[in-house]
Amino acid sequence: MLPSLRTGCNPGHTCIMPLLHSPAFNSIGQSRTASPLFVAFRHCPCLFETFFIMSSPASSRIEKDLLGVLEVPANAYYGIQTLRAVNNFHLSGVPLSHYPKLVVALAMVKQAAADANHQLGHLNDTKHSAISEAC
Question: What sections of the protein cross the membrane (predicted)?
Fold first, then answer.
C-alpha cells in the first residue's frame, strides 16, 4: 500500500502527509517489501530532509510539566522533575553523611515498615532479619 503524498514539492512547502504502513520487517527480522516510508522519499525529497532532521541525535530533549518546559540532556536517565530538584535544591554533591540525623530517621522508617510488613505476613523472616540487622 503506497502512502498518500503530494508530488512536486515547492521550496516553501513541506509535504508531510500521514504515512500508514506496515513495518518493513516482521517480528523475527525478515525483510518484507520496501517500507512505504522509503518509497515516499522517492516521491517527496523534502520528506526525507524532514525525517532526517527529526531522527538525528540531539544533545538535549524537551520535557514539559505543570511548571513549564525544560531541556533535559538527551543521554540522561532522569526527567524534568529530577532536573528541577537539582536546580532548586542545592543538596547535590553533598554526601548523605553530612546529615546523620536524616540517616537515622530513614533507618527508623525502614525498620518500622519492615516490622509492620512482617507482622502482616508480607515480608518473610529472612528478609525481615536482614533489614533489621541493617537498620
Answer: none
